[in-house]
Design brief:
Blueprint lengths: L26 H10 L3 H6 L16 H14 L4 H10 L1 H6 L7 H11 L4 H12 L5 E13 L7 E3 H21 L13 H21 L6 E3 L6 E5 L2 E15 L12 E10 L8 H12 L5 E3 L7 H10 L2 E3 L18 E3 L4 E3 L5 E10 L2 E8 L2 H6 L15 E4 L3 H11 L2 H7 L2 H15 L10 H30 L1
Parallel strand pairs: 1-7, 7-8
Antiparallel strand pairs: 1-5, 2-3, 4-5, 5-6, 9-10, 10-11, 11-12, 12-13
Helix pairs in contact: 1-3, 1-16, 3-16, 4-6, 7-16, 8-9, 11-13
Length: 483
């Protein structure tokens, strides 16, 4: 077949008008409209005076820099150098900035100065989506995902390793000082580069060792990011954080487009330095209420959130929670404590073999609530055909430890056995798992770029803000097509 003629000397490669560079329904247009509609109070919350100042050299408009960062986080361009390149080379960014090309230092200074105030933008994205009337608030799902930090796993050290490292650094500094001791007249008071670097490392290691050796300090600490911990994700163990998110559905199907896939809206976010999700469900529920200013009909969580204090707190609030037991495999065993019947009149339990267990004592545990201990008769347990399966304690017999939240756990267990709870539970994965997939794969959120819990929380919030802008842009496109 013949080849199409081509040349690099063409003069009409792009339209002459900047506004013709992007389609009328391109998501970047929604980002521009979102930033243009920010109120004076919202700019003030970011610490920005949109009008600029009378003195000094002309500066970039904050609206240009903010829009560039928001669209960058939407498309996975999250470093200031890559963002500067995108502003110079990619058509949507060129349109967004009006053809201006801020350098990476300008972009970084803006991001560093104002990222802490961007939680208000996240709340605004939720309100923008809510204005469409499409968000399903009755059912929301909450989950956590492990994200690597800007730190290496092998830099996480315990007290013994830190002490050994400190000894090696002290020895290296002594050698460097001996090599740099002047034999002649005094030299200017300036340390050689290698010695200055070793001094900084010694100061860092000493500070880390003090934290680890403190009575209430951590057992290990990362020298690069002291607030990062070792977390286990699908890719293995990394030094990072536990990022939390709550999500609601946004159906986008219409009569004209009945097969259109639903969108998702993040309604609350948080980042914690914790290896698992225990204790995070109630704080996330509070964050959902603060962001959306409305309640949640049913909150869907996985077994990682399950625990007596969490179940009891939700029961006290009257909050419907769909959450499987954390020990659902152990509960399948025939002699698990959930198969022991309680009699409140006699304050005794009856085992599956119909033998009684009476209250014996209370046990206090460090940082955990006091439990009541019930025991069977040792002679009866030894003679029981279930001995060896139910218990192997021949001296004292079977024991049950009953916490203060046992009644709330039993009520939740009964609720989870209903078909209504099972139907809700089946919706959890399809509601929240795609959100983490988009955040990590399409928005580049597999690792945090910043260090420290406060900065990581700001970065996660901006990622969620950008995700919600993607959803709002889809709603905006739907409304344009309907019009």
């Amino acid at each position: 077949m013949p080849l199409r003629p081509w040349t690099r000397d063409r003069d009409d490669v792009l339209p002459a008008k900047l506004d013709d560079w992007v389609a009328p329904d391109h998501p970047v247009r929604f980002v521009a409209a979102f930033v243009d509609e920010l109120s004076a109070d919202e700019w003030d919350a970011l610490g920005i005076a949109p009008g600029g100042h009378a003195g000094g050299a002309p500066a970039y408009d904050p609206a240009v820099l903010l829009a560039a960062w928001l669209y960058g986080f939407m498309t996975g361009v999250r470093s200031c150098r890559k963002l500067a390149t995108a502003c110079a080379e990619q058509v949507p960014f060129l349109w967004l900035t009006g053809g201006q090309r801020p350098d990476h230092n300008t972009l970084w200074r803006f991001y560093e100065r104002h990222r802490g105030g961007m939680h208000g933008l996240f709340k605004r994205t939720v309100a923008t989506a809510a204005a469409s009337g499409l968000v399903v608030w009755a059912i929301q799902a909450v989950d956590g995902t492990k994200i690597g930090g800007n730190a290496a796993k092998d830099r996480t050290l315990d007290a013994d390793t830190l002490a050994a490292l400190l000894a090696r650094v002290d020895g290296a500094i002594a050698d460097l000082e001996a090599q740099n001791r002047p034999d002649g007249p005094p030299t200017p008071p300036r340390l050689p580069a290698a010695l200055a670097q070793a001094e900084r490392l010694r100061t860092q290691v000493r500070a880390a060792l003090d934290q680890v050796q403190a009575p209430d300090g951590p057992t290990r600490i990362n020298l690069t990011d002291p607030e990062a911990i070792l977390v286990k994700g699908r890719g293995g163990i990394v030094a990072g954080y536990n990022a939390q998110a709550a999500v609601a559905a946004v159906p986008l199907a219409s009569a004209a487009h009945p097969t259109r896939r639903p969108a998702r809206l993040i309604t609350a976010v948080d980042v914690v330095a914790a290896a698992d999700d225990h204790g995070q469900l109630v704080p996330m529920l509070d964050r959902v209420g603060t962001t959306t200013e409305r309640g949640v009909g049913a909150l869907l969580g996985d077994g990682g959130y399950h625990g007596g204090p969490t179940v009891a707190a939700c029961a006290d609030r009257g909050q419907v929670v769909v959450m499987p037991e954390a020990q659902h495999r152990a509960m399948a065993e025939p002699y698990h404590k959930t198969h022991f019947a309680y009699d409140a009149a006699t304050d005794t339990y009856t085992c599956p073999e119909q033998h009684p267990l009476a209250f014996r004592s209370s046990k206090a545990r460090t940082n955990r609530p006091v439990v009541r201990v019930y025991r069977g008769d040792a002679a009866v347990c030894r003679a029981c055909p279930a001995f060896g399966d139910c218990t192997t304690d021949a001296r004292q017999g079977r024991a049950l430890e009953v916490g203060p939240h046992e009644a709330a756990l039993a009520a939740h267990r009964a609720w989870m056995a209903t078909e209504a709870a099972r139907a809700l539970a089946r919706q959890r994965k399809s509601l929240i798992e795609p959100v983490f997939g988009v955040l990590k794969e399409e928005q580049g959120g597999r690792r945090f770029h910043l260090r420290g819990l406060d900065d990581v929380q700001a970065e996660w919030t901006l990622l969620a803000t950008a995700f919600n802008l993607r959803t709002c842009a889809r709603i905006w496109q739907r409304e344009r097509m309907a019009a």
